[in-house]
Amino acid sequence: MNALSVLSARGRWKWFPVPLGSFLFQALHNSCCRKKSTTPKKTLPSVAFCDESTKESGNAVDKLFSSEQQASILHVLNTASNKELEAFKLLRGRKSINIVEHREKFGPFQNLESLMNVPLFQYKTTIQVCNSILCPETGGKKRKSQENRLLKKLIKPEIRRERLKGVNSILSIVFGTRRIAWAHLDRKLAVLDWQQNECCQLMKGTYLSSVYLEEISSVISKMPKADFYILEKTGLSIQNSSLFPILLHLHIMEAMLYALLNKTFAQDGQHQVLSMNRNAVGKHFELMVGDSRTSGKELVKQFLSESVLKEEPRVFFPSDKIVHYRQMFASTEKHRIEELYDSLLQAIAFYELAVFDTEP
Fold first, then answer.
1. Distance CA 93, CA 323 (A)
2. What is the rounded distance in angstroms from the CA atom of residue 271 to the CA atom of residue 156?
3. Residue 149 class from Cβ within 10 Å (0-12 exposed, 13-18 middle, 19+ buried)?
4. How many angstroms separate the CA atoms of 20 and 18, rounded?
5. What is the CA radius of gyration of the chain?
């Protein structure tokens, strides 16, 4: 029924051309809200009427873009692969898959309005997607954003890339429960110093801070100076209670090294000590098996050999030190001296990932 008869104040019936559904909805709404008539009336957002206006708005999608712009957008929608569509931020995930599936089932898109027939695409989404195809993020901006995200996952605390780009030398430090090792490399990936120090007494007793201070201060006095000091950030889980003594030791070591090596932090507020994700280094050298990292001994052995055999090795060991380092490696090869190997690998990965931002 498209009209309702209503009794007027004078006792006469009048017919109103009001849709029955709308009238009943309004009457029911007024009845339910009668007791709350003192509250301010809320204005419904325009989204509430989106279903009624979608068709009407959809007819106007093509009018928002010139014929050249429409042709450019349709070319992308009709020719780009699923992976290519995902390059646009708004088309990641299911949206790009839906476009390809719709295209394969119904053929190429004839106009921009037809994009609204694809699941997950409404009027507003369609316009946003069309605009993103016309004006994607520039390569430089997108790359810089990705670089910053990767850098935050790789290194803590956050640091400006400009400082990293200007680094001349770094000291990579890796410590465990029994020893601490370091590798000093310049920006040419030349090994200037590489050694380890035994620290067997630290975990004995009650973790006395004074003992840690004395032991670590003694080790630092042997370390060369560098622009940055890179510490290994372990991936041990705090949920495993059996590992708590080891975690406590590693955190004390890290805190001591941060405090003792950041000598100028109080004056300039610039971090010289950074922590690098251990697993990120493992992935860089393909040393990961699932969530576990395998030994880097064979890789280090390879780098030592290449330094002699290749004209342009990945890592350069100066000729006056190569014999010493090869003897040192040979003397530790029968033992599990991972800190020594890892300190060198961490230094290489830091330069390649954070400073040069290149893959080998």
1. 54
2. 10
3. exposed
4. 6
5. 33
d(CA 281, CA 345): 7
For residue 40, the one-letter residue type is P
Q: Which amino acid is at 261?
A: L
Return the closest-CA partner of residue 253 out of 292, 221, 207: 207
Tens of pLDDT, residues 47-87: 333 343 444 444 578 888 888 888 989 999 999 988 888 88
Q: Mind listing the pLDDT tens digit for each residue in 76-134? A: 999 998 888 888 878 877 888 899 999 999 999 999 989 999 998 888 888 888 888 88
C-alpha triplet 129, 135, 136: angle, nearest 5°: 80
How far is it, in rounded angstroms, from Cα 323 to Cα 269? 41
Question: Which of 302, 297, 298 shows the shortest CA–CA distance to 314?
Answer: 302
In three-state secondary structure terms, 289 is strand
Q: Measuring CA to CA, which residue among 100, 91, 174, 176 is closest to residue 136?
A: 91
327, two tokens: 């003897």
Residues 6+ apart with CB under 8 A from 217: 260
Contacts of 22 (CB under 8 A, 6+ apart): none
Chain center to CA of 324: 40
Q: Would you call 66 helix, strand, or coil by DSSP?
A: coil
Question: What is the DSSP code string of 167-184?
Answer: --EEEEEEE-SSEEEEEE
What pairs with residue 197 in β-bridges?
A: 180
**Preceding amide of 17 cis, omega within 30:** no
Contacts of 66 (CB under 8 A, 6+ apart): none
